[in-house]
């Protein structure tokens, strides 16, 4: 079996993939049509931020699994993967500490103007007067949008810095907020109004597009710091540029609209050039520790897929199928029994969806559960029951809507 690794990946973990008996094509930097062409003969594709467009799934008929060696899957056409029956999995949480560390690096950098200090020294200037203007983080309020793996890691660090931490997240319950030792805001706007630092950690999706809106940015107090280490799409970028130009708030961002996907490119960002903005080059996950953890997790996923047929961290399995009924058939474990059951389902013109066949100890009997998209007629059940030498019991249950 072949695996294509189309982004940087630690050498030692490429060896672990080979140790699983796979042929590994290590081709970082592949893009677009070249990626689709290279994926033609592989079963597994591993990527970081490289885009995986629909074309890959159209061309690579043997592809079974795409692993995002990272957190965000917005760079993969997951809809196309699902339409072609390809599993997509990621490595959630494995780079959370690295992103939280960068978030704090940015927070401190903005408060103490560290990059400007360095730049002035390099230009031969001493300016203690200007660079002494800092407010300090202790006792200040940080608002965290998205309390998943990264948001929680940021909260933990903010508490250690003696900050007041308030969170807003889609599923942040009062209990979880209490467990994290933070306060909970009722809305994003309410959070923004009290945040001297607002930091965002939500995935890019149709739901989060422009979540940090013009109104949210305008609600930030004068002199606030806005930090984005998630994705550019979660912010109204036009409004952010206007706010940053005005200089009413400071901005630190690791992500940009239309940022290059690869390692090196020329890139001109209006936002990144402004004096109140500190930009980094989408390096949130780029520590050796995080890349090691991500690669280990990738190898674990490949191992389980190869040896157990399961896909941990899969992001595109239907949470619920449209099936309304479940056929339960307890049967003798013999050749052809399931084929006969499915033939009866086919003859009734019903679509079988999820199927699970469980074998009992001793391998004499099994229980097969078949989800059906419509109610089968009584004749179909009778046809199955009629094969008494194969069938022990047949039942039909209606599934909860
Ligand atoms: N800069 C980088 O290098 C870097 C590295 C890793 C991750 N990221 C980005 O950070 C994102 C978050 O990563 P994570 O590991 O914390 O993911 P996560 O899934 O653990 O957490 C995401 C959180 O966002 C919340 N959320 C989702 N939709 C929301 C909405 N509409 N409103 C409010 N809250 C919502 C979820 O409930 C969850 O708590 C990733 O999806 C990725 O885009 C960037
Ligand atoms: O979602 C992620 O994990 C990050 O954006 C990291 O992207 P990278 O693997 O390209 O650094």
Bound chemical compounds: nicotinamide-adenine-dinucleotide, 3-phosphoglyceric acid
Question: Which class best fits the helix and strand makeup?
Answer: alpha/beta
Strand order of the largest sheet: 8-7-6-9-10-11-12
**Mean pLDDT metric:** 97
CATH architecture group name of the largest domain: 3-Layer(aba) Sandwich
Proportion of beta-strand residues: 15-25%
Assign the CATH superfamily of the largest domain: NAD(P)-binding Rossmann-like Domain
- Percent helix range: 25-40%
Q: Work out the number of β strands.
A: 16
Tell me the number of structural domains.
Answer: 3
Radius of gyration: 27 Å
- Total helices: the number is 15
Low-confidence stretches: none
What gross morphology would you assign? elongated
Biggest β-sheet strands, sense, barrel: 7 strands, parallel
Characterise the protein shown here:
- There is one protein chain.
- This protein has 401 residues and is α/β, with parallel strands linked by helices.
- The chain has three domains: 2-94 and 289-308, Rossmann fold (3-Layer(aba) Sandwich); 96-284, Rossmann fold, CATH 3.40.50; 325-398, 2-Layer Sandwich (Alpha-Beta Plaits).
- The chain is built from 15 helices and 16 strands.
- The chain has helices at residues 11-19, 32-38, 54-59, 78-83, 96-112, 114-122, 128-131, 149-160, 174-180, 188-194, 214-219, 237-246, 288-308, 337-347, 378-385, and strands spanning 2-5, 23-26, 44-47, 65-68, 87-89, 141-145, 164-168, 183-184, 197-200, 225-228, 250-253, 277-279, 325-332, 352-359, 365-372, 391-398.
- The chain has a seven-stranded parallel sheet, with helices on both faces.
- β4 (65-68), α4 (78-83) and β5 form a beta-alpha-beta unit.
- α14 packs antiparallel against α15.
- The radius of gyration is 27 Å and the shape is elongated.
- It starts with a strand and ends with a strand.
- The relative contact order is 0.10.
- The mean pLDDT is 97.
- The protein binds nicotinamide-adenine-dinucleotide and 3-phosphoglyceric acid.
- It is an enzyme of class 1 (oxidoreductase).
- This is D-3-phosphoglycerate dehydrogenase.
- Residues 326-401 form the ACT domain.
- Catalyzes the reversible oxidation of 3-phospho-D-glycerate to 3-phosphonooxypyruvate, the first step of the phosphorylated L-serine biosynthesis pathway. Also catalyzes the reversible oxidation of 2-hydroxyglutarate to 2-oxoglutarate.
- Belongs to the D-isomer specific 2-hydroxyacid dehydrogenase family.
């Amino acid at each position: 079996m072949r695996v294509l690794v189309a982004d940087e990946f630690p050498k030692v973990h490429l060896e672990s993939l080979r140790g699983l008996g796979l042929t590994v094509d290590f081709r970082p930097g592949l893009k677009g049509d070249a990626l689709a062409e290279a994926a033609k003969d592989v079963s597994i594709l591993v990527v970081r931020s490289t885009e995986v467009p629909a074309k890959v799934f159209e061309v690579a008929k043997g592809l079974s699994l795409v692993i995002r060696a990272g957190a965000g899957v917005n760079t993969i056409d997951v809809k196309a993967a699902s339409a072609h029956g390809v599993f997509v999995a990621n490595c959630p949480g494995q780079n959370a500490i690295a992103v939280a560390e960068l978030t704090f690096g940015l927070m401190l950098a903005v408060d103490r103007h560290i990059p400007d200090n360095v730049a002035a020294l390099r230009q031969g200037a001493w300016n203690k007067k200007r660079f002494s203007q800092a407010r300090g983080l202790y006792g200040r309020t940080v608002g965290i949008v998205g309390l998943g793996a990264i948001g929680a890691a940021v909260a933990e660090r903010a508490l250690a810095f003696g900050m007041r931490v308030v969170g807003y997240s889609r599923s942040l319950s009062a209990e979880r907020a209490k467990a994290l030792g933070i306060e909970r805001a009722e809305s994003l706007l309410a959070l923004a109004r009290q945040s001297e630092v607002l930091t965002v950690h939500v995935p890019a999706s149709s739901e989060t597009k422009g979540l940090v809106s013009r109104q949210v940015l305008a609600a930030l107090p004068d002199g606030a710091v806005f930090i984005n280490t998630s994705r550019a799409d979660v912010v109204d970028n036009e409004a952010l540029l206007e706010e940053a130009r005005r200089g009413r708030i400071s901005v630190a961002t690791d992500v940009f609209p239309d940022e290059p996907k690869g390692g090196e490119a020329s890139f001109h960002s209006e936002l990144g050039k402004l004096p109140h903005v500190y930009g980094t080059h989408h390096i949130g996950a780029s520590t050796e520790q995080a890349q090691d953890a991500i690669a280990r997790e990738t190898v674990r996923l490949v191992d389980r897929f190869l040896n157990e047929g399961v896909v941990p961290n899969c992001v595109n399995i239907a949470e619920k199928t449209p099936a309304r009924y479940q056929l339960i058939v307890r049967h003798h474990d013999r050749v052809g029994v399931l084929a006969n059951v499915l033939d009866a389902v086919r003859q009734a013109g019903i679509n079988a969806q999820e199927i699970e066949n469980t074998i009992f100890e001793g391998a004499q009997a099994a229980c097969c559960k078949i989800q059906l998209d419509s109610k089968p007629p009584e004749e179909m059940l009778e046809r199955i029951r009629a094969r008494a030498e194969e069938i022990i019991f047949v039942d039909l249950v209606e599934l909860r809507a």
